[in-house]
Amino acid sequence: MTLLTTEQKYAQQEVVAFWKQLSRSGLQKCEQAMVSRYFPTTGHLLDLGCGTGRAVLALNQAGYQVTGLDLSQNMLAAGRSLSAEAHFSGANVLHLPFADHSFEASFMFFGALQHLPGRAQRRRAIAEMARVTKPQGRLILGLDNVAPALSCYLYWLARKLKTSPRSSPAPQVNNNGADSTLWSRQTRQTHPLVWHVRGLGRTLRWRTWPALVDVGRGLSPWVNDLEPGDTQVAQFAMPPTPGHIYYHLYRSRELIADATVAGWQLLGQHSGSELNEGQVYPEAIRQRDKQLFFAFARL
């Protein structure tokens, strides 16, 4: 297994090309719901871990002034090729090159925070977000925990069995006619059964097994310096590219605690699935979904 740095992974040509193409798709429905619910209608926003500028381009078109920041110069170059007017900055989230209170709101979609090894570094990044955001300004953090937990699949199965096919809601679509999630079944053009079997396999590999490993770490913390939730993943494009990269699988209470220490107050927590479907999940299910969103206010 080859372990790459964050910069090396996001410099891969296939990864850059994948995200550049995806930048034309705009925001997911769940992301748009978070922006509409928690952000002011206008203002200067900071997109941390902006990649090739998917959210930057979409929110600029919506009337915001958005600055995109990313560590990968290759991703930023691809973003600039999509829009000469968009503002991109190359920097590390641990040292943001902006003055205090520069932005009305900040956001980080799709788990960029999860590439930072060590809880101290993740807390430092969230503190930097607080520094550059105005008092009472807002922060949206999106996490991608690779796959839903098994409890989510059991909950969805039980709900599916209670719902007749005739009363099932139609799939949510965006303006391009695709599913409201970026990693949609239509993108892969696979049969629904194959899609769900593959998803269950990812759950066993990326959520269930790491959870068992974390139990061992808790019993024997002296074995190594890895924290609960630390793992390595390879897929940041379709198809996957060679090399693994550090990734941290967050628990909700962990992120909320880190944000509180950094000077943020929790406003709301949602899962991507429930926002896309217009549903409200039980808290235990919401916290274990693949995609999680948190909204905070700057104290």
> How many structural domains are formed by the residues?
1
Distance between the termini: 43 Å
- Total beta-strand segments: 10
Instruction: Specify the CATH homologous superfamily.
Output: Vaccinia Virus protein VP39
Mean pLDDT: 89
Please outline the major beta sheet: 7 strands, mixed
CATH architecture designation: 3-Layer(aba) Sandwich
Rg over C-alpha atoms, rounded to the nearest angstrom = 19 Å
CATH topology: Rossmann fold
Poorly predicted segments: 167-179
Please write the string of helix (H) and strand (E) elements.
EHHHEHEHEEHEHHHEEHEHHE
Strand content bin: 15-25%
Structural class: alpha/beta
**Helical content band:** 40-55%
Strand order, largest beta sheet? 4-3-2-5-6-10-9
Shape: globular
Helical run tally: 12
Please write the CATH class name. Alpha Beta
Sum up the structure in keywords.
3-stranded mixed sheet, 299 residues, 20% strand, 7-stranded mixed sheet, Rossmann fold, alpha/beta
Written overview of the protein:
The chain has 299 residues and is α/β, with parallel strands linked by helices. The chain has a single domain, classed as Vaccinia Virus protein VP39 (Rossmann fold, 3-Layer(aba) Sandwich), CATH 3.40.50.150. The chain contains twelve helices and ten strands. The chain has helices spanning 6-9, 13-22, 29-38, 54-61, 73-82, 119-132, 150-162, 185-188, 192-219, 252-261, 272-277, 283-286; strands at residues 3-4, 44-48, 65-70, 87-90, 103-108, 133-144, 230-233, 244-248, 264-271, 291-298. The strands form two sheets. A seven-stranded mixed β-sheet has the order 4-3-2-5-6-10-9, with helices on both faces. Strands 1-8-7 form a three-stranded mixed β-sheet. Helix 6 (119-132) links the parallel strand 5 and strand 6. The radius of gyration is 19 Å and the shape is globular. It starts with a strand and ends with a strand. Mean pLDDT is 89; it is low at 167-179.
